[in-house]
Amino acid sequence: MPVRQLPETIVNRIAAGEVVERPASVVKELVENAIDAGASRIDIFSDGGGRRKIVIADDGSGMTQADLALAVDRHATSKLDDEDLLAIRTLGFRGEALPSIGAVARLSITTRHAREPHAWALRVEGGDKTPIAPAALSQGTRVEVADLFFATPARLKFLKTDRTEAEAIREVVRRLAMARPDIAFTLAGEERAPVTWAAALPGAPGQLIRLGDILGADFRANAIEVRSEREGVVVGGFAAAPSLTRANALGQYLFVNGRPVRDKLILGAVRGAYADYLPRDRHPVLALFVTLDSREVDANVHPAKTEVRFRNAGLVRALIVHALKEGLAREGRRTAANSASSVISTFRPGSAPPANWDWRSSPSYPVGGNASFATPSFAERTQAAFDVGAPSADVRHHEVAPDLLDRPLGAARTQIHETYIVSQTRGGLIVVDQHAAHERIVYERLKASLDANGVQRQILLIPDIVEMDEATVERLLARGDELARFGLVIESFGPGAVAVRETPSLLGKTDAASLLRDLAEHMAEWDEALPLERRLMHVAATMACHGSVRAGRVLKPEEMNALLREMESTPNSGQCNHGRPTYVELTLTDIEKLFGRR
């Protein structure tokens, strides 16, 4: 078959396949054009999931008659001052969107520039342009796209249901609205009730208002402002407290110079920053904005402009990790699970017993119960109701210094079930999980020792010999240097066995066999791509768990108060290094609400 030049219409349809993947792609391109035109308000309407109709109207600068004639030609753009593709300061710059849309749909553009006496209109159907004609429009541009993919019917077969396509449009608009809180957006269509996001004030407060409007009140209530800057690169935004998580990474919104992107580098940095706070199967909710010189980032990597490439990727990653860690450490004890509202939501008042309920039908009533048990006296019943046994540890009111009540975590009052410490503050009460709290304390000590002069070791008089399968032994010995940095020194003891020579002093007496088996399980999930820092933190977290106060241990009053004081001075003490809360708090006001006093 001889080589031949393809017709222009076919070339345009092939190009459209790269740019116009689905209706949401059309909305993204057209809204970005409106943003670049300086619009302060953008209205989006879709019908049939965008398949039948898409309308984008803005109050931007509009186009002159001459500009409109060129706008639907391939590779015609007003967004590049010269041929320098490294100086990209706008969202769209390829000059492919409008001609690509016109090649596969019925495109109608009505626009008015301030210098023009009236508006102008142009239609493109399947790549065929109509002459420009006068039209009526007060300001800006109105773009209507009808019968998407009518010129390429095969593409219609790959579209999903109208509801799914409408949701994809909604997600695109959400991302663009997050990037530009100074612009008002309205999203409407047959598939949904109209949604309006009003323009917000500039700066971080306005940004948080827009993020809260889109991501919900929970995010606004738990958002932590983060910021880091170095060498002209600025990372800012808001990240949710560690207990506000999702089962996937879809709640992570990333922007580079105002452009919504999906970047593996940034997602990996986020995962690393939250490694100390979240369980493995949970993901944080956040919106991060990276701002840097346009010459330091390549936005021309993907036709849809959803990916970027950084000149100094290491610097960007380091700034993201630093910003997140600094913000999370600053709000160390602040998590949604600690708040009174979250605690109260777990209380579900039981339904009242029916009027004809017989207490003798209760499961607690003994089978064959005798009359003397079935009909106790009133005094006996009252006394039995309060006979619940003594607490594990009890601190009398007069034994506590009054000034402790003013401390953030208050004064310890009692220990219940040999697991939880109950403390009193001036404004309520706090319940602490002693193991989770001490686990975080030991973990932070290990990290501090590692950063300072290494973890102090204790030499075992008689080495512990731990037997495991040969594959596990090899895995542990291969990571021997990393374990030694935390004071755990091991060596081979023949096939299928490891000798533990030294252990970290911070852990005290520990079960070496159990510790090594847990470490081996974690190591089985690692690969060489996992950074050394992350691997070391996994080791530290596992050691901290084994070196902490266990549930079931009775604590003395002075031990309970000492644990509370250490929590107050320990970074990130609001949750353990597995992401679980270390304490919950109830204010006196909320306690009174539970009992109907308010």
Automatic annotation (TrEMBL):
InterPro entries: DNA_mismatch_repair_CS (IPR014762), DNA_mismatch_repair_MutL (IPR020667), DNA_mismatch_S5_2-like (IPR013507), HATPase_C_sf (IPR036890), MutL/Mlh/PMS (IPR002099), MutL/Mlh/Pms-like (IPR038973), MutL_C (IPR014790), MutL_C_dimsub (IPR042120). Keywords: DNA damage, DNA repair, Endonuclease, Hydrolase, Nuclease. GO terms for cellular component: mismatch repair complex. GO terms for biological process: mismatch repair. The keyword DNA-binding does not apply. It comes from the Bacteria. Residues 211-329 form the DNA mismatch repair protein S5 domain. Residues 412-555 form the MutL C-terminal dimerisation domain. One of its GO terms (molecular function) is ATP-dependent DNA damage sensor activity. Pfam families: DNA_mis_repair, HATPase_c_3, MutL_C. Belongs to the DNA mismatch repair MutL/HexB family. This protein is involved in the repair of mismatches in DNA. It is required for dam-dependent methyl-directed DNA mismatch repair. May act as a 'molecular matchmaker', a protein that promotes the formation of a stable complex between two or more DNA-binding proteins in an ATP-dependent manner without itself being part of a final effector complex. This is DNA mismatch repair protein MutL. It comes from Rhodopseudomonas palustris. The gene is mutL.
